[in-house]
Amino acid sequence: MTHVWESQLPLLVVLLVLGTMAKVITVRSGGEPGALSRLGPAVLVPGRLRVPALLVCAAGELVLAAGLLATGHAIFRWATVAFFAMSTYVLLELRRRRPDAGCGCFGEVSSAPVGVRSIGRTVVLTGMAGMSVLAPVPGWVAVLHPSWLTAAGVALLLVLSPETAELIERARFRAPCEQRRGPSESATLARLRSSGAWRAHREGLTSLEPYDSWRELCWRFFAFQNHDHDDVVFAVYLSGRRPAVRMAVVGSEGSESLTEYTPVSA
Amino acid sequence: MGYPSVERRRVLAAAVLGRESDPAPDNADPLRAVAGEILDVSPHLIIIETPDGTEERLVIAPWATAWHGGDAAPTDLPVGAMVMMRALRDGRVVERIWADATRITGMILSIEGRRDLAVELDCGPHRGHRTITIPYRASGRLQVRHPKFEPGYLFDAIGIRQDGGSLALLPATSQPPYLARAVPSPPPVHAGMAAGISGTATWSDTFDEEERGAAYPMLERADTGCAQAGVSCAGLPYLSVGSLLRVTNVCSKRAADVPVVACGCLAGRFCDRCVECDTSPRGRIVELSPFSYVELGGDLVKGCFNAQIGLG
């Protein structure tokens, strides 16, 4: 039974180290003004605090990884539980406030918008960290004696990782989504029409054909009008088999205020 | 499907994706571009008529320089010349004047003549054809940087407008060695993610007068109705007409938010570098209107500056 509690420790250590590396690389390569791919919870803090926030987070992860690996002290284990629980909350907040931002968990590979899978992954990691609190041995012992439960944990995380799909696409196309020629407008419109957001708002539109459509980065936007002469705008992510669809109602051109803001995912 | 208002796109995209725009960049000593027709010029004062018909009197700084086909003193500029000026102090003090400057960018269609050459250029699907003259005195200097004076190759020069025509005087770049239709593909990016989008920013005089905007190469062909869009050797992301670019002049450290107003299909065909303050990465990333270019600290005669872009 003891093997069960410590089985996920190697995974947690590896993921924390990968997270540290990804954040440091993001900071080192991110010298550009107003980066095009906005990543992770850093978008929630003001511009000048983004780099310090990322570095503090990276240092925290490294300390946790070292603590888990070298000692069996409870403080590192509980801190890891707290870290992943907080990550879950931050991702939920990110999804609510900035639906276009990726989770940035593994640098710019994690640029797809935060979805149920990313959030599910942090929930699972919180559970794994919770299991590891009861482990009787320090992390290095678990690393030297991996069990089949460790492999099961890896498989579960791979299933929950949206990055695997992105890595496969990259191997196929050799360019990130915003540089690839997108699917045709009609194909994207067909994807929109099969989404829940479309079905929920179709009735209110004056016309089923968009009056304007444009592409920016990895999103295609379709603008419609509803019976109150407000603009109804849908954004469809251009990558993946079940792309994210967002929707908002914006007051007509005279009034700049947003009358309603309803993020909906397909 | 027309564009009811491309500015509206920005509002709609920000609303649906919950984007908050970063505050506009703050430059310490902002530059202003002023354009107009010279009514009178004296050693300390220049009087111009702006395109909207108002008369403006501007002080000429003691260190000011002018260009009219070559370096000139401000007092030597002819009355009636169209000038573009870089001004300090809320646009009241002029420090650089370009008179009748024009930029001639296109693909060579034909070349005729023995001494003075008449060159017909294809300036892209939005800008049509243009016939310019290369005077004999400038042809040697141009040919040093443009060794292929043959149909199908690109041409980029700076010159002056004279008697309703354009004279090419200075090469604006080294001519790309490939045919205009054979643009090299961008380097694979995943071999190490590029640190940001850097490259060359150039200018073009095909924008409306006093317009602040940019032509961007990487637009979807279906959205713009331009069959030549979406070509670039710089590895640019797709954007749309109406997107806001934050352009930073790496040389002068000035930044500004510039909207994409046109398709830069010709700029995307140039895979050249700018050596203004340092050697830039390959490829033209943005083609600015003269107003935006001058306000970012660029010199019209040099033709380019090293730039970085991001989303504004």
Automatic annotation (TrEMBL), chain A:
Q: Which InterPro entries match?
A: Methylamine_util_MauE (IPR009908)
Q: Which Pfam families match?
A: MauE
Q: Name one GO biological process term.
A: methylamine metabolic process
GO cellular component assignments = membrane
As for membrane topology, the entry says: Multi-pass membrane protein
Protein location: Membrane
Q: Membrane-spanning residues where?
A: 12-30, 51-69, 75-92
Q: What is its main location?
A: membrane
**Alphabetically ordered keywords of this record:** Membrane, Transmembrane, Transmembrane helix
Where is the Methylamine utilisation protein MauE domain positioned along the sequence?
11-133
Protein name, UniProt field? Methylamine utilisation protein MauE domain-containing protein
Native source organism of the sequence: Nonomuraea deserti
Automatic annotation (TrEMBL), chain B:
Source domain of life = Bacteria
The identity of this protein, by name, is Uncharacterized protein
Species for this entry: Nonomuraea deserti
